[in-house]
Amino acid sequence: MNTDSEKRPLLGMTIEELQSVVTELAMPKFTASQIAQWIYEKRVTSIESMTNLSKQNREKLSLHYTVGRKSPAGEARSKDGTAKYLFEVAGGKMVESVYIPDNDRGNERATLCVSSQVGCKMGCRFCMTGKQGFHGNLTANEIINQIFSIPEAERLTNIVYMGMGEPTDNLDEVLKTVRMMTEKWGLAWSPKRITVSTIGAIPGLQRLLRETHVHIAISVHSPFHDERKELMPIEAAFPVSKVMELLRGYDFAHQRRLSVEYIMWRGVNDDDNHADALASLLKGTSARVNLIRFHAIPGVALNTSDEKRMTAFRDYLNSKGVLCTIRRSRGEDIMAACGMLAGKKLK
Questions:
Q1: Which positions are catalytic residues (predicted)?
Q2: Which residue among the candidates 75, 96, 173, 261 is catalytic per the annotation?
Q3: What pTM, to 2 d.p., does this model score?
Q4: In 3D, which of 63, 35, 73, 29 has the Cα closest to residue 51?
Q5: Would residue 338 show up in a list of annotated catalytic residues for this protein?
Q6: In the annotation, is 48 catalytic?
Q7: Is 113 annotated as contributing to ligand binding?
Q8: 274 known member of a binding site
Q9: CB of 21 within 8 A of CB of 15?
Q10: Distance between CA 124 and CA 137 in Å, rounded?
Q11: 324 is annotated as contributing to ligand binding
């Protein structure tokens, strides 16, 4: 008999992959749908719990497969209610997820920021994840496990691919997990509950737009080519002007929403000249802008803009017809805020 570490996880498989499994094991074809229901809807943690499968089929399945759920290896809780979870993935590497509860004017939301890679290749100057280098892509199992295995899993209302890694750099696995969350054999969520954040690698962005209906968030951080290239090397290959040109060709008027993430640094990208150029860059799109406070990370000589400057920047964009808000900072005391995830051991 295979040990658990040698067995393949069922969590993270699509319905087509589950159909291949039952065919390989000479089970009835409808068993695939039953397994999917047990894993994604009923959220069982053991094959033995799949009681409408015959004992013989459960034993056969257990020889080579496991459900594949894995609890967090550590956690940290913020005074504001945010929680950061550490998950061990292949090779003993670690990734982090961030749970953010929110009750805004009686509208309760519970969001999980999930990771898609161990580290990141993109090398953005202001991001702690990028500074640790790239150590591998997560599998669909390792991504979806973050969503299923936190203590608050049943409360989640929204998922954001905004943790460690660039989602479009591991797009096949990310798209598989989007299917698991949105299709009838999975969680059957509306795509409106899912946002994928990207720095704007155009080939991956095109696939996201074409193959899903999830919300899209673009990390911009500067409207000027040379400045953005210094902050985000991806600008050399995929200028943000070309990204916006692509996005103007898509309809964001109905279910899908387009947003722009803009971290503000004092004396770098927070003056009226930047606000005016950003408004021009976004002209012809329906993008709404989220202004984000910068959270200091070691070895980076950047400082966050003050509240007065951020408010003036927001008001300027709104006066130009660009919907803009200042995002409330969450989890900074546990290193869970934007750009601070590093897969470090949690106490």
A1: 96, 338
A2: 96
A3: 0.94
A4: 35
A5: yes
A6: no
A7: no
A8: no
A9: no
A10: 18
A11: no
